[in-house]
Write a structure and sequence with these properties.
Chain C: One of its GO terms (biological process) is protein transport. Chain C: InterPro entries: AAA+_ATPase, ABC_transp_ATP-bind, ABC_transporter-like_ATP-bd, ABC_transporter-like_CS, Oligopep_ABC_C, P-loop_NTPase. Chain C: It comes from Schleiferilactobacillus shenzhenensis LY-73. Chain C: Keywords: ATP-binding, Nucleotide-binding, Peptide transport, Protein transport, Transport. The complex is a heterotrimer. Chain A is mainly α. Chain A has two domains: about 45-75 and about 125-335, MetI-like (MetI-like fold), CATH 1.10.3720; about 85-120, no CATH class. Chain A has 13 helices and two strands. In chain A, α9 (about 210-225) packs antiparallel against α11 (about 240-275). The longest helix of chain A has about 35 residues, at about 130-165. Chain B has two domains: about 10-230, P-loop containing nucleotide triphosphate hydrolases (Rossmann fold, 3-Layer(aba) Sandwich); about 250-350, no CATH class. Chain B has helices spanning about 50-60, 85-90, 115-125, 130-145, 150, 160-175, 190-210, 220-225, 245-250, 255-260, 300-305, 335-350, and strands at about 10-20, 25-35, 40-45, 65-75, 80, 95-100, 180-185, 210-215, 230-235, 235-245, 310-315, 315-320. In chain B, a hairpin with a 2-residue loop joins β1 (about 10-20) and β2. Chain B starts with 7 loop residues before the first strand and ends with a helix. By secondary structure, chain C is of the alpha/beta class. Chain C has a domain at about 45-55 and about 85-235 and about 255-325: Rossmann fold. Chain C has 13 helices and twelve strands. Classes of the chains: A mainly alpha, B alpha/beta, C alpha/beta. Chains in contact: A-B, A-C, B-C.
């Protein structure tokens, strides 16, 4: 706080008054960014989330395209070609050249020239890549389904419980507690009493329990939002509950919903894989990442690649969804990060 | 009774702090210097975004992760706090320098009994036994006016009212007998009647312990009640500083005028309140001249072009406004400021 | 009933009349809160009634009960002669009430939906009550409202987070004005704003009132600002009205000990006055002796919450204070 004198002598014109421009005061110079544009620019700064996103896009489109352009029929058995190592054409990449322990297994099994199994074959001689693509498709289908139940049952349930409050909320909360107190696994096992093992019981189990976390989150957020002054303002203007839900609640819940969906997906994928792995999920011969892992595990010591490839896919899927979810959370709510 | 002195205990020199944002660096503190004397209360007044909180947080090393200290020194006990290691800083925090935050609801741990919380700084910085620390906690809790302190040591924060909680926060801050208390809007969240009690309490503590206080507030009424000296901040800079009477009766900066004029007193009956037009500048791109110029009814050409230096008014009082330049024209003072200047003049007439 | 004198002494037309309003949350449960305990007062057409009290005094609850954000537990609220405490949600009378009474909120950061553009925020009421004939009419109305609160058309397409606190508060005011209300409840509209911005908002509210003949209930804890903007002031404490009189009367001749303590605690931006200040401490237990108390006129147009045997003392004090002034 040392006083000082001006650097140079000043002429009288320097001290001419300047009128205050009140209108200019209210100018906002910054370009107008909407909330989602803002979030997008933040997401773009998160390299890990961005890589995850494109990885998921790649895996997803590969799995989808394999519906039409499959490298082989995933269920065709070639009992002569069992346990072949991977072979990438004639590229002669180590581990991917069809040799195991110095022996060219493709030649020994009499595989015709021009036939390659990019990730090898399993114990029935089925093309592993084709099976992994089918398994991924199953996983992504489960992901889609879990998202669907999250967005319908979960969001709706949470909105009603949170908005109505009082006794409605209490009853709905008790119901949720009952539902979530029964482990998923038991639900599926009980369903085996009625249905054959397969997609139906998995879907039903997810439909019954998968949306519970979403409902809880949406309820908690709605409870907070409904006392926010902009909701009160809408009420004093005479807005109906339904319009408040659509116009004010859902847009403000959107980030929570998106983020929670991103966390539901990996757990649903894992749930299916786990059921198939222990043998109460998808029945043979349908491929699923879980059954592939189970098959691969049986021959782990002899042919580790049959476990490693499906394992890599499931790890990548789970990791990518989780990292993307983290990235989205930081993008939508910058305060939560660090 | 301990009187304020002229010997500095803390000095902030040419401090500059930037915040990294997506739009670029926000220059939150733009060359701030001041000293805190032993035993005095320095009030830093300013609006939200003026940088007053950031200033004290840099002293405590409590800046957000995206903050960067660009330049400056903060000298305490012949050493630059900003050069301290984490360990040195921790030894300082809560021991030599303690802080009181705005919200008594969130500055106490709801899961810890208050006795333990109040004693914690003592346990952290000395090797005192738990029993002795708790006994000391009882003593300071009594000092801040918590009745039956000994019986209430095991109570949790939620069992106290807002005003009592702020007293507990203050007890926690003074238990180590710090040389400096940093109070960041400690009464803003409280009701006026409680606010009056807390201010009274802080004055009492200062009179008995001789601690120096930096008191941050936006309320000039509170400043008038507690401060020995005042620094007025605007847009990351100090624009005027001086003894409390100098600021209130002989203000020089048009921003100080605006603040004093905009506050209605109980006797204001004018048809319209005086307002400072517009809003504070965006510190992403601070204006080249005086940051207040666009809102200043007394602005001159030079204000737009060049930042005003501090012009001394008295040995203790200076203001950064070109109006104090010898070549600047005389301006007609706003009525409230003219009234205050009269009080000032009358004092020297005696 | 002394309360009747509160409402019948009015010579000016009464717009809002509150009779024995009671607002209890979670009645009968362990966490029961008696936020408002039997208050009665009226608000005259075109005036500003200031409602002051500290946090937890029930002032915000009173405002929200008056605008039917809460369903009153007991008592009546008459707006333009109609008892709105009994209106059914969704009824035509309720829709009408929702248009005629508006609220300005405290927190400029929470009172605007962050996902909506400013023009849609302001037009919300226009849309609900179908006040605009066409999309162009809607835009015109929004622009006129923006101009009225000192903002301009360029702001219409922006989002709330781009505005400063004072600008946001003005957007909130424009939203309330959009439905052309008669009565506005301002719930601490300036307490979250900086000093230099508070005056802007208060001036704006005064200008609008002068132009459109609005009636205000101005809820605040900043007594200096309330004194400035209000014609009459009601002081609340622990869910009860303890004093009601004209603004000057409350400030110059406070009678209730709580009002006195509140006034003594206001910080004044004048060091000389501050040095001499002695805050008075009010002990709420003074009123907890279970004696029946009510709002009694102890001086013309000056009401104090008092027990029967305290009235004489208050009357004497009022007379003495007024004589001393002269």
């Amino acid at each position: 706080m040392t006083p000082q004198s001006p650097s140079r002598p000043l002429g009288p014109e320097a001290f001419k008054p300047v009128p205050v421009n009140t209108q200019a005061q209210e100018q906002i110079a910054a370009p107008s960014l909407t909330f989602s544009q803002d979030a997008r620019s933040r997401l773009k700064q998160n390299k890990l989330a961005l890589v995850s996103f494109w990885l998921l896009v790649f895996i997803g489109s590969a799995a989808l395209l394999s519906l039409w352009f499959s490298p082989a029929n995933p269920n065709t058995q070639h009992l002569a070609y069992t346990h072949l190592p991977p072979k990438w054409g004639n590229l002669n990449v180590p581990f991917f050249n069809g040799y195991r322990d110095g022996v060219d297994l493709y030649a020994r099994s009499g595989v015709p020239r021009g036939t390659y199994f990019f990730l090898g074959t399993d114990y029935l001689g089925r093309d592993l890549l084709a099976r992994i693509l089918v398994g991924t498709r199953v996983s992504l289908f489960i992901a889609l389904l879990a998202t669907f139940f999250d967005l319908t049952i979960g969001v709706f349930y949470g909105l009603i419980a949170g908005w109505r409050g009082g006794r409605t909320d209490t009853i709905m909360q008790r119901l949720i507690e009952i539902i979530s107190s029964v482990p998923n696994l038991i639900v599926v096992i009980l369903m085996l009493l009625v249905f054959k093992p397969g997609l139906t019981s998995i879907i039903l189990a997810i439909a019954m329990t998968g949306w519970v976390t979403m409902a809880r989150l949406v309820r908690a957020e709605t409870l907070q939002l409904k006392n926010q002054e902009f909701i009160l303002a809408a009420r004093t203007l005479g807005e109906t509950s339904r319009r408040i839900a659509v116009k004010h609640l859902l847009p403000n819940l959107s980030s929570t919903i998106i983020i929670q969906t991103m966390f539901t997906i990996p757990s649903a994928i894992f749930f299916e894989a786990f059921l198939s792995y222990i043998g109460i999920g998808l029945p043979a011969p349908t491929a699923s990442l879980g059954t592939l892992l189970a098959d691969g595990q049986k021959v782990l010591q002899l042919y580790p690649s049959e476990l490693v490839f499906p394992a890599i896919i499931i790890v990548v899927l789970m990791l990518a969804f989780n990292l993307l979810a983290d990235g989205l959370r930081d993008a939508f709510d910058p305060r939560s990060s660090r | 009774m301990v009187q304020p002195t002229d010997s500095p205990i803390l000095s902030v020199e040419n401090l500059r702090v930037d915040f990294a944002t997506f739009a670029g660096p926000v220059h939150a503190i733009r060359d701030v210097s001041f000293t805190l004397n032993k035993g005095e209360t320095l009030a830093i007044v300013g609006e939200s975004g003026s940088g007053k909180s950031v200033t004290v947080r840099s002293i405590m090393g409590l800046l957000a992760n995206n903050a960067r200290i660009v330049a400056g020194r903060i000298m305490f006990q012949d050493a630059d706090i900003l050069k301290n290691t984490k360990r040195q800083l921790n030894a300082l925090r809560g021991n030599d320098i303690a802080m009181i935050f705005q919200d008594p609801m969130t500055s106490l741990d709801p899961t810890m009994p208050i006795g333990k919380q109040v004693a914690e700084p003592l346990r952290l910085h000395t090797s005192i036994s738990e029993k002795k620390a708790l006994a000391e906690a009882v003593r300071v809790l009594q000092l801040v006016g918590i009745q039956d302190a000994a019986e209430r040591l095991k109570d949790y924060p939620h069992q106290f009212s807002g005003g009592q909680r702020q007293r507990i926060v203050i007890a926690m801050a003074i238990i180590t007998q710090p040389q400096i208390l940093l109070a960041d809007e400690p009464t803003t969240a409280l009701d006026v009647t409680i606010q009056a009690q807390i201010i009274h309490l802080l004055k009492e503590i200062q009179a008995t312990t001789g601690t120096s206080i930096i008191f941050i507030t936006h309320d000039l009424g509170v400043v008038a009640g507690i401060a020995d000296r005042v620094a007025v901040m605007y847009a990351g800079k100090i624009v005027e500083y001086g003894m409390v009477d100098e600021i209130f009766y002989n203000p020089q900066h048009p921003y100080t005028w605006g603040l004093l004029e905009a506050m209605p007193t109980l006797t204001t009956s004018a048809d319209r309140l005086y307002t400072i037009p517009g809003t504070p500048p965006d510190l992403l791109a601070p204006p080249p001249g005086d940051a207040f110029a666009p809102r200043n009814p007394f602005a001159m050409q030079i204000d737009l072009a060049e930042q005003p230096p501090f012009f001394p008014v008295s040995p203790t009082h200076a203001a950064a406004t070109w109006l104090l330049h010898p070549a600047a024209p005389q301006v007609t003072l706003p009525p409230e400021i003219a009234r205050r200047r009269q009080i000032w003049a009358a004092r020297f007439a005696h | 009933m002394t309360n009747d004198s509160v409402t019948t002494s009015a010579k000016r037309p009464v717009l809002v009349q509150v009779d024995h309003l009671v607002q209890t949350f979670n009645p009968g449960k362990k966490d029961e809160v008696k936020a408002v305990q039997d208050i009665s007062f009226s608000i005259y057409q075109g005036e500003t009634l200031g409602l002051v009290g500290e946090s937890g005094s029930g002032k915000t609850t009173t405002g929200r009960s008056l605008i039917r954000l809460y369903q009153p537990t007991g008592g009546d609220v008459l707006f333009a002669g109609q008892n709105i405490a009994r209106l059914r949600t969704g009824s035509p009378a309720m829709r009408d009430f929702r248009r005629k009474v508006q609220m300005i909120f405290q927190d400029p950061y929470a009172s605007l939906n962050p996902r909506m553009k400013v023009k849609d925020i302001i037009a919300e009421g226009i849309d609900i009550h179908h006040l605009a004939a066409s999309a162009a009419d809607r835009d015109n109305r929004v622009n006129a409202l923006l101009a009225q609160v000192g903002l301009n058309q360029d702001h219409a397409n922006r989002y709330p987070h781009e505005f400063s606190g004072g600008q946001r508060q003005r957007i909130g005011i424009a939203r309330a004005l959009a439905v052309e209300p008669e009565f506005i409840i301002a719930d601490e509209p300036i307490s979250a704003l900086d000093v230099s911005i508070q005056a802007q908002v208060v001036n704006l509210l005064k200008d609008i009132q002068a132009k459109q003949g609005l009636t205000y209930l101005f809820i605040a804890h900043d007594l200096a600002m309330v004194k400035y903007i209000s014609d009459r002031i009601a002081v609340m404490h622990n869910g009860r009205l303890v004093e009601l009189a004209s603004a000057d009367e409350v400030y110059n001749h406070p009678l209730h000990p709580y009002t006195k303590s509140l006034l003594s605690a206001i910080p004044i931006p004048d060091p000389a006055i501050e040095r001499q200040r002695t805050p008075l401490v009010y002990d709420p237990r003074e009123a907890e002796d279970n004696r029946p108390r009510q709002l009694v006129a102890v001086y013309p147009e000056h009401y104090v919450w008092a027990a029967a045997d305290e009235v004489a003392a208050y009357q004497a004090a009022a007379v003495r204070q007024h004589r001393e002034e002269r």
